[in-house]
Specification:
Layout (H helix, E strand, L loop, with lengths): L1 E7 L3 H12 L5 E7 L6 H13 L6 E5 L3 E3 L3 H11 L3 E10 L5 E4 L14 E2 L7 E2 L7 E5 H7 L11 H11 L3 E12 L10 H18 L3 H6 L8 H28 L2
Parallel strand pairs: 1-2, 1-3, 5-10
Antiparallel strand pairs: 3-9, 4-10, 5-6, 5-9, 6-7, 8-10
């Protein structure tokens, strides 16, 4: 059984269509809908609520799915086959097809993640092979439970966006891989967060982008949290890193010489 976590918000017809496609899967699934109509915790917290529900259950994988993502009948099976055959794959992503033109892929892998995510896209015939990618989109991503138990939940400092790419970079930094699964396909209609012109939503997105930049790009988070942060400068950091890299090179050379001398 593969649990499927759906963060739901105010579109019953999308949810019904999404679930109908899940009911047609060639492998058994169990659907958990986090209803954000009642108390909107947005995307990241909704995903984590679902993950917590299944961490103690006997399932090797957990699928995260948008309410506007309609999977082909063999999609979940294709995802699990890839995960089974690649034990270091912690996160897998299916191909997301254009709702008006299913022969066109709107997501085949994450490219730039900052400030806003950009996706690899193109004709469906261009994406026939499974391949490692930098990051996966949260609209359709399968997670290995063993990886979750090692690296933890999604970062809830992100409310609506960026938590998917952040989670992928966290996983990869711990030695896990992220793969595109070419055989797993589905229509992505877009809805709850993709095309909203709401100032409150835009503010949430901007805050998420700022957190991503502080965490991964600028060093601000470390400077804020650390004892020595106030006195760190780019020049000082660069100098120390250069010294450490040279020390590593020197030690590696000495090991090589010692090995040769022992032969």
């Amino acid at each position: 059984m593969i649990p499927v976590i759906i963060p739901y918000y105010k579109n019953k017809s999308q949810l019904a269509r999404c679930i109908s496609h899940l009911e047609a899967q060639t492998v058994p699934v169990e659907v958990f809908v986090r209803n954000n109509d009642k108390d909107n915790v947005y995307f990241t917290a909704a995903i984590n609520e679902g993950i917590r529900k299944y961490l103690g259950r006997p399932c090797p994988y957990i699928l995260v799915l948008n309410q506007d993502m309609y999977l082909e009948s063999a999609a979940v099976e294709k995802m699990t086959e890839l995960m089974d055959s690649h034990p270091r794959c912690g996160i897998g992503a299916g191909l997301q097809l254009h709702s008006g033109n299913p022969g066109y892929v709107i997501f085949a892998g994450g490219l730039e993640a900052f400030p806003a995510g950009k996706h690899e896209h193109g004709d469906l015939k261009e994406f026939t092979e499974d391949e490692q990618i930098p990051w996966a989109n949260g609209a359709c991503m399968i997670l290995r439970k063993e990886m979750i138990q090692e690296i933890g939940l999604f970062d809830e400092n992100y409310v609506l966006i960026c938590s998917d790419s952040d989670y992928c970079y966290t996983a990869r930094s711990r030695g896990w891989q992220v793969w595109r699964i070419a055989g797993a396909k589905g229509i992505h209609e877009h809805g709850a967060s993709g095309r909203v012109c709401d100032p409150d939503i835009e503010l949430l997105k901007i805050k998420d982008m700022i957190h991503f930049g502080r965490k991964w790009l600028t060093g601000e988070m470390y400077r804020d949290l650390s004892h020595e942060g106030a006195r760190l400068t780019p020049e000082g950091i660069s100098s120390v890193m250069s010294e450490l890299r040279q020390a590593r090179i020197n030690l590696e050379r000495s090991f090589d010489h010692a090995t040769v001398a022992c032969r």
